[in-house]
Amino acid sequence: MSPLRVAAVFRRIVAQFRRDPRSLALLFVAPLAIIALLGWVLGSQGAMAARVAVVNDSTGPGAGAVVTRLESALEGQAGITIDRSVANDSTARQMLKDKKLDLVVVLPADFSLQSRKIDLLTLGINPSGEYAALPAVQKALLSAVADSSAGAALPTIGRATVYGSPNATQLDSLAPVVVGFFAYFFVFILTGISFLRERIGGTLERLLATPVSRAEIVLGYSLGFGFFATLQVAIVLAFVLGRLDIPALGPVPAFAIGLGVHTAGNPLISYLLVLVLGLGAVSLGIFLSTFARTELQILQFIPIVIVPQGLLSGFFWPIEGLPNLLQPVARILPVTYAIDGLRQVMIAGADLSSPQVLLDLGVLTGIAAVFVVLAAATIRREVA
Amino acid sequence: MILAPTPPPATPPPATPPPAVEAPALHKDFGAIHAVDGIDMSLPPGRIYGLLGPNGSGKTTLIRLLMGLASATSGTAKVLGVEMPSRANLARIGYMTQSDGIYPELSVWENLTFFAALYGQTDKAQLHAALELVELDTRANTPAQKLSGGMRRRLSMACALAHHPTVIFLDEPTVGVDPALRVQFWDHFHRLAADGATLLVSSHVMDEADRCDELLFIREGHVLAQGTSVELRRRAGTDNIETAFLRFATDPAPGTGTDATPSPTAQPTKAAR
Known about the structure:
The complex is a heterodimer of chains A (384) and B (273). Chain A is an alpha/beta fold. Chain A folds into two domains: 255 residues, no CATH class; 103 residues, 3-Layer(aba) Sandwich (abc type-2 transporter like fold), CATH 3.40.1710.10. Chain A contains 15 helices and six strands. In chain A, the strands form two sheets. In chain A, strands 2-1-3-4 form a four-stranded mixed sheet, sandwiched between helices. Chain A has a two-stranded antiparallel sheet with strand order 5-6. In chain A, a hairpin with an 8-residue loop joins strand 5 and strand 6. The longest helix of chain A is centred in the middle third of the chain and has 31 residues. The two termini of chain A are 26 Å apart. Chain B is α/β, with parallel strands linked by helices and 273 residues long. Chain B has a domain of 167 residues: P-loop containing nucleotide triphosphate hydrolases (Rossmann fold). Helix content of chain B is 28%, strand content 21%. Chain B has a six-stranded mixed sheet with strand order 6-7-8-3-9-10, sandwiched between helices. Chain B starts with 20 loop residues before the first strand and ends in a 23-residue tail after the last helix.
């Protein structure tokens, strides 16, 4: 192992990237743009106003009073506008179709104060979005029904969590995930394509004609891309964790740079986790470039390598909720361990004394080591 | 400044120097194709050998076997007495690939210093001399992708020679290089050989044959004939090297057989540029 040769490979990769503004943009601007967009989209989800109507199909005693109470209770909820003009079920259905209503509360014909069954009606095209107003409606329902029956208010429910805040938004739990996922995705794509270009551009043939060893090439690549992955993670973490509020100035309205997500733990440990993940991605890119003949074929690895990690690694859904057959698959994916570690650190405030963080780091290191061996073994002397 | 090969070790020279390149009974198959089909070669040092043959005759595969970049189906390749592949031995070998094999985003200087560093060559004066030789010293900071095809070829050559190799494989080095510079290239090759380097230059351009000390006609993976240009033409009974090649291609011992005319199926070599 010659440090001089490793340094030469490292310097070359840095020089190549400096000359390639588009790849630099992919590394540094694209993740920020996507995360900013994500923050913007998720941030506005709670503010969506739902148009709600209450329809009474019941002739039972007390139903009318329930409707009145419901309507006034709903009126007091943030993010809900109430439409009192809707007379019956069929009008309500038509108004849902015409997108004049978002949600209809129906007191069915058999409604009584004894069987307090109430139906919620939505269009059904995008159920999760349509039920965004559900918590507010439920809250109003509870108080209205309770008041009308016994005259006594039900206890209100408060929430508490061991870690973080019970008011944590979707963004707070997704932030650690996107940091890890982007590092993996972009580093993999860039290394894969860079190394493929070595193969098809004839420079790998030339490299192998020099005394440089395969291990020196993989190490030089890891250092080079590790350097850029480090910068990327620093910038992405700063953007996710930091927040700079810019006041309004003339025609420019006030805005904020950065998401300001609260991190409970040490950002340096988050950093370490993503770095080890990224080093694995470098070697995976080198390894998989063996199986590609064109740059397009590198992109064909996205559905095989990247998308399953997005679906199975705990990005959106907890791994415990996955089908039994898929759980072992999730447990071999590097992003799974990065996301778990990042959540432990950023939300639960774990540090390097936490066995779970150490396990995550250990597994990530092991996976990276396997990819390094695979990468070095497939930089063949004989290039197809 | 002239790029001189590294001086040989200070051992007394044997009566007959050992061959710089040796390949007894070398075979390389790609499936059913015999790319190198039993080549025997033993090349004494300090000379320029021309590897002449049409496209697809096995020239590049032979060089890759000698470099240890491909593994032989049978037989071994030895360079400077060391069996290939040998990573340590590669430090004494220069290889100019058929494709330029340079990094388009990097400047001329960055390409040269990168490859030189892999060989442990970091002497800036020597590297500047290498650039001067290929007349790219004024283009040191130009990105390789902005060079003309001929300039890229020249850069590729500088990258192959900057570490002063003792054995040099040049795969079609003069393609796309203008005639004036081509003459300079060959003058330089001769200086390198005079200093003790062994050069194996592949070409399908027959007019370069006369510039080599010795020629190897190669076709369909085997050597048709080996000798000086004068010798081979005399044996084939012609003044034209191309005709000589075609006669050897149809008859392994022209002049002794009856039919010395090239058959219509013989693959013609490309016209000289």
